[in-house]
Structure to design on (507 residues):
């Protein structure tokens, strides 16, 4: 381990504040259970750790996000839990052992650090489950491994009574984590994860906690809902209601959309507008996931780049992108003016193939300066695809050809790092545009106060965009992951009984 990394690790450890976290719960006579959530204040230590995690997690493919469709692979969505802000409390065993956990709709297992976790530093900074101290513990022993981008949380399954608020799931199967590699869980302010996704993505085919609540008749309705308090001055972080909704937490009616793919809480969404102007990227539909396990909002690079440009976010200049615009821009524009399908433009000029539904990289060969043939792989194809969408969007707004080409070239400077946030000027936040999602045919606005993270005050303040880029190829994508940035302004209902998700303005 290098000296610089050791210094960073010491700094991060020194920033940890070990406090006892109280969480409120309330079981009502109407068959619902209300769990109070705590909100972690963003700080520079966690942000720095988050950036380090993203930078050093190694090679990762968007395909990893959906490897759970392979029956032989136990993989959860790759996410950076350092950005998770909301967590609650649960107990395991008799007498009860208390833990804090992220209530995560993007995964389906319950896991907690084990007292047998001896070789992971993270385990020494969190509460650990002690099977020997519980009279209701039942040995299971089935091995468990949940793979992430740079390693795996591994351990084994055990059974014990799990209590969430006033509800007790007897003999609940969960994972005792004996290995928690990396920095993510080292600086996290929570102990484990309680997954609220569908059984289809549960590691080890384990029955999720939520399923047991429903199947054992512990809740009145097969519905749970999230209210995330976005008021930074309010000590109450939010509330999750098992068995229904709390009318005090939303205004008006919910807009419901059906779950289209069981596993995640996935649904179809329409186009996205920036300052009232349609991007066109999702005009024919995109998929989205409501994910309480992250504070971020993740989408296709093409649209995130357009958002970055609109808010002045600093990304990475893509030379391939500029080369494509410079060499092929006018040809692409002429094709679009001639009403060629934007999906076919890049295949017509030879930068991509076309499989009938979307462009695919052809591995274009080029001769570099030293005379050695190399592969541009997907870079030029991807840049061409993005530029086609940008140009089509501007064409639909009747911009001049000169302006369209200039706009596309400008956007090249705002292409983000995959899965990383971009910095913005704090003084410009108030003038940034409204970003609007279309769900169920209705608009859902996000203000800059919703999608910008601010750490610190005055001249020391740092601001970052909550939008990050991740490209999921068809047929699973294009895909948006709507985290707390979206679920904060919009009260969210997860209707397991009717297999649908609902959104209403949060109160």
């Amino acid at each position: 381990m290098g000296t610089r990394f050791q210094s960073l690790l010491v700094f991060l450890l020194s920033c940890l504040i070990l406090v006892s976290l109280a969480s409120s719960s309330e079981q009502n006579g109407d068959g619902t259970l209300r769990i109070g959530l705590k909100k972690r204040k963003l700080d520079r230590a966690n942000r720095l750790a988050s950036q380090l995690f993203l930078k050093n997690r190694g090679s990762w493919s968007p395909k990893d996000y959906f490897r759970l469709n392979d029956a032989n692979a136990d993989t959860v969505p790759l996410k950076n839990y350092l950005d998770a802000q909301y967590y609650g409390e649960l107990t395991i065993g008799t007498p009860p052992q208390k833990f804090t956990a992220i209530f995560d709709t993007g995964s389906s297992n319950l896991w907690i650090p084990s007292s047998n976790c001896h070789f992971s530093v993270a385990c020494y900074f969190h509460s650990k489950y002690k099977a020997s101290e519980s009279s209701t513990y039942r040995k299971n022993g089935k091995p468990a491994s949940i793979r992430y981008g740079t390693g795996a949380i591994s351990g084994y399954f055990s059974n014990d009574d799990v209590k969430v608020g006033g509800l007790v799931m007897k003999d609940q199967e969960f994972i005792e984590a004996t290995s928690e590699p990396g920095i993510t869980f080292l600086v996290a302010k929570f102990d484990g994860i309680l997954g609220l996704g569908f059984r289809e993505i549960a590691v080890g085919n384990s029955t999720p906690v939520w399923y047991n609540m429903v199947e054992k008749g512990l809740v009145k309705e097969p519905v749970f809902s999230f209210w995330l308090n976005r008021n930074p001055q309010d000590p109450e972080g939010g509330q999750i209601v098992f068995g229904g909704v709390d009318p005090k937490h939303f205004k008006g009616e919910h807009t419901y959309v059906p779950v289209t793919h069981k596993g995640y809480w996935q649904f179809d969404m329409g186009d996205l507008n920036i300052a009232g102007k349609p991007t066109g990227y999702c005009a024919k539909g995109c998929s989205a996931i409501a994910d309480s396990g992250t504070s971020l909002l993740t989408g296709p690079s093409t649209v995130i780049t357009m958002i970055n440009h609109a808010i002045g976010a600093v990304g990475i200049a893509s030379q391939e992108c500029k080369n494509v615009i410079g060499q092929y821009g006018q040809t692409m524009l002429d094709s679009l003016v001639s009403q060629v399908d934007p999906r076919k433009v890049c295949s017509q000029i030879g930068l991509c193939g076309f499989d009938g539904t979307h462009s695919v990289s052809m591995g274009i060969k080029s001769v570099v300066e030293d005379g050695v043939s190399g592969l541009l792989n997907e870079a030029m194809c991807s840049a061409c695809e993005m530029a086609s969408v940008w140009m089509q969007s501007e064409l639909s707004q009747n911009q001049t050809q000169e302006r369209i080409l200039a706009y596309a070239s400008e956007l090249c400077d705002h292409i983000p790092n995959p899965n990383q946030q971009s910095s913005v000027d704090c003084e410009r936040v108030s003038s940034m545009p409204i970003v609007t999602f279309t769900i169920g045919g209705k608009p859902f606005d996000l203000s800059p106060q919703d999608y910008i993270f601010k750490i610190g005050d005055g001249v020391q303040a740092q601001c970052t965009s909550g939008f990050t880029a991740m490209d999921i190829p068809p047929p699973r994508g294009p895909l948006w992951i709507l985290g707390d940035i979206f679920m904060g302004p919009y009260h969210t209902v997860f209707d397991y009984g009717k297999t649908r998700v609902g959104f209403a303005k949060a109160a």
Notes: The chain has a mean pLDDT of 80. The longest helix spans residues 319-337. The chain has eleven helices and 30 strands.
